[in-house]
Design brief:
Keywords: Autophagy, Glycoprotein, Signal. The protein has 768 residues and is α/β, with parallel strands linked by helices. It has 30 helices and 20 strands.
């Protein structure tokens, strides 16, 4: 009996041990660090670390009030500890367990002892709403994706991008508004992006975003920042403001014909949207932006009395938005669509089917590639019927007949187009080579590859638009459908000239205007961090400019005054006259003499409108003596350039001899000029070297006559201003022997007397 009890106890103990072992094994089997972190066995250390950060912030007991948060956090920490330790990870991969017998560590360890921190734990966010749930999974942008996809696509549609980070409480606050706005903008075709600064710092710096949250828009590759309160209405208006101006033209009864008839100049179809709202819908603006290179868009407000005639003309239902597309015929729409709730895909399909005119003009290579694509093996052949014509009025009959034929075409395989020979000369030279070049001509061609190779066949006999020409062309097209081998000529076409380059200046002006507007907006909203490079450039330029002016103003130091005085004394000594100081002139502030020409254009500004007290010193010269006299004149008056009341000019007597003679005749009595009357009016008097000091306010003049020095510099010269003078015959004989460079030898002394006010004056009258 005792033995039986001992056996029962022993069996009970063994069963308990087995159950405990099974529980341990089961518990160990349930703990899988890979499953806990949700990673694969091939996950890299960086991936494991990233997942650990996300789960640790989600299950942190201080932030997660779930009763199981503490146990889950311990599992996450232990799993991270195992998978980041090479030995423990290898042991688990091989044996399914680590050195510890329990999945959570030894029995005496509690929560506090097993709490694990790595070096970056204190950078964890508190929650997962900052930007990694809704937006990041679908709209996350990377640097290469932005450069290669977003920027090129921004020329067709705008992008709205949010800059966020994990550690961002403001990002949580704007998230509901952002989600609601994004859902509506996506239906309009607007691109959405989210940049997480923690993972894409390079892209954030590239965009110029230095704080979170930030919202910005990208259009035509240009970045613009959103500066208002984050509400749906502001974000929608921001997108609308991103779009270029002048995308859609307002059309009324007055300008509708002008708008529709511009198809020939713009080489585009025209689309009119009729709706009852006063402002252009955003969806229509976005469509106009996407197809701006193909179609011209206009908007008609049905609620205005100025559009009543248009509504009656096209018999439209005013209860639903309507779109009409016009091509060459401005009286009848080529296509129409009407629906109450127009969706983006419906509008896109409508516009895509009407991107080209019935017979557009080939204005660049891009249009040629789209209208007449290269033959593809998996597609049907496309043939281009090309009219080579001219712009003159004499070609209008043939052009209209060609357009009429294109309008009747219903075959999708055929595309009609025309070129002006003068604007696409290289293309026409290839197609008309060794053929009758009399315009117009029609050529049927098929493009074979992207390098320009074509097969073509000119239609013999030219084209004048007659019934016979139409019949002959239609017969050729029917033969082509049955036998493509009739295109028996081949050639390599050059790239087409871009006829739209003349619009570059206009586009540049619009771009500059938009750029200046953006700068002003940034200044108004105090976006100083983004404006710092531009402001730094502006202030640097102003500093350099201001510094240059200041340096030039004070460049004449006191040390320079003495050498200049000595130079002046030496010059006077060479001229044989003592030096006389001038107390009325200041040291010059210039290192050059500014001399302007006195003409009928500058007469008023240089003489008539001179301020009181200002005098214009005018040197009289000819074309042959201009260089010599101006050089001598500059040397003589250089020391007086510091005076603010003196201005220096020269008068070409070859052009204005009559004016010179008239002035001297009027002042003859005052200055006692002894010139022969016949010589004066026959323009034979030599006025070269004369200098006039003209006061336009008080209307008087002082006269300097050339001084004769000859070979003997010590000989007595004539007095300035008509003082003592020799006989008339002697003066005339001596003037022929005057050397040009000696005529202004005494001009410096004369200017000094002018400044002192000791020269005789004579009235100059009102002559001009």
């Amino acid at each position: 009996m005792v033995m039986m009890r001992m056996v029962v106890v022993l069996l009970s103990v063994m069963m308990v041990c087995v159950l405990l072992m099974d529980a341990t094994v089961e518990s160990a089997a349930e703990f899988d660090p890979y499953k806990v972190l949700g990673v694969t066995r091939s996950a890299s250390q960086s991936e494991i670390k990233k997942v650990y950060k996300r789960l640790a912030k989600e299950w942190h007991p201080d932030k997660n009030k779930n009763p199981e948060a503490e146990d889950m956090f311990i599992k996450i920490t232990k799993s991270y500890e195992i998978l980041t330790n090479e030995e423990k990870k290898a042991s688990y991969d091989r044996y399914g367990q680590t050195d510890n017998t329990h999945p959570y560590g030894r029995g005496h360890h509690g929560f506090r002892h097993n709490f694990y921190f790595d070096e970056s734990f204190f950078h964890f966010p508190f929650n997962n709403k900052g930007g990694r749930d809704f937006a990041n999974s679908k709209y996350t942008l990377h640097f290469s994706q932005y450069v290669n996809e977003v920027v090129p696509d921004s020329f067709k549609r705008p992008y709205l991008i949010k800059i966020t980070s994990d550690w961002c409480f403001s990002c949580i606050h704007i998230e509901p508004v952002w989600k609601e706005t994004v859902q509506e903008l996506e239906t309009l075709g607007i691109g959405i992006g989210v940049v997480d600064v923690g993972y894409e710092r390079r892209l954030a710096n590239h965009l110029g975003a230095h704080q979170t949250p930030s919202i910005l828009g990208v259009v035509n590759g240009k970045v613009s920042f959103f500066h208002y309160a984050v509400v749906k209405g502001h974000l929608m208006q921001f997108i609308e403001d991103l779009l270029p101006q002048r995308l859609v033209e307002k059309v009324t009864d007055k300008n509708n014909q002008e708008f529709l008839k511009s198809w020939h100049k713009l080489n585009k179809p025209h689309v009119l949207l009729f709706d009852q709202v006063p402002s252009v819908p955003l969806l229509y603006k976005l469509t106009a932006f996407a197809y701006k290179d193909y179609v011209q868009f206009g908007y008609v407000d049905q609620g205005l009395s100025e559009t009543a005639d248009l509504l009656r003309k096209f018999n439209l239902n005013t209860y639903a938005p309507t779109m009409l597309v016009f091509k060459e015929d401005v009286e009848k729409p080529a296509d129409i669509i009407q629906a109450k709730g127009m969706k983006k895909h419906i509008i896109d399909e409508f516009i895509s089917n009407n991107k080209f005119l019935l017979a557009p003009r080939l204005v660049n290579q891009k249009l040629f590639d789209e209208l007449c694509p290269v033959k593809q093996f998996h597609r049907r052949r496309k043939y281009c019927v090309l009219l080579i014509t001219g712009e003159e009025e004499s070609f209008s009959t043939g052009n209209e007949a060609f357009l009429s034929l294109a309008s009747d075409n219903t075959n999708d395989v055929l595309r009609f187009a025309y070129v002006y020979q003068r604007r696409q000369q290289p293309l026409c030279d290839v197609l008309l080579k060794n053929k009758d070049s009399t315009l117009p001509q029609v050529v049927i061609l098929e493009r074979r590859n992207g390098a320009g190779k074509i097969l073509y066949k000119p239609v013999l006999g030219g084209w004048n638009g007659s019934k016979e020409d139409k019949h002959k062309l239609l017969e050729e097209l029917e033969r082509l459908q049955k036998d493509p081998s009739i295109l028996n000529c081949d050639a390599v076409l050059p790239e087409l000239n871009n006829e739209l380059t003349s619009m570059f200046l206009t586009r540049w002006i619009y771009t500059a205007y938009d750029y200046l507007s953006e700068i002003i907006a940034d200044l108004l909203h105090n976006n100083w961090r983004e404006m710092m490079p531009l402001l730094s450039l502006i202030f640097s330029a102003l500093f350099i400019l201001f510094g240059t002016v200041v340096i030039q103003a004070f460049s004449d130091s006191s040390e320079e005054k003495q050498p200049k005085t000595k130079a002046k004394e030496a010059s006077n000594a060479e001229n044989g006259s003592p030096h006389t100081s001038s107390t009325s002139s200041r040291p010059p502030k210039k290192n050059f003499v500014e001399v302007t020409e006195l003409t009928d254009i500058t007469y008023t500004s240089n003489l008539v409108k001179l301020r009181p007290g200002h005098i214009n010193v005018v040197l009289v010269l000819t074309d042959s003596t201009k260089n010599i006299l101006l050089s001598k004149f500059a040397k003589e008056v250089y020391s007086f350039t510091g005076s603010l009341t003196l201005h220096f000019s020269f008068l070409n007597v070859d052009k204005h001899s009559e004016w010179m003679a008239a002035v001297l005749e009027y002042a003859q009595d005052a200055v006692q000029i002894d010139t022969d009357e016949e010589e004066v009016y026959s323009c034979k008097v030599d006025y070269t070297g004369y200098v006039l000091a003209l006061n336009g306010h008080k209307k008087y003049l002082c006269l300097f006559k050339p001084v004769y020095t000859g070979e003997d510099l010590d000989s007595k010269p004539e007095e300035e201003g008509g003082g003592s003078r020799s006989r008339k015959g002697m003066t005339r004989s001596r003037s022929t022997s005057l050397q040009i460079h000696h005529k202004l030898d005494r001009l410096g002394l004369w200017v000094e007397r002018l400044m002192e006010g000791t020269l005789p004056r004579c009235p100059s009258g009102e002559r001009g």
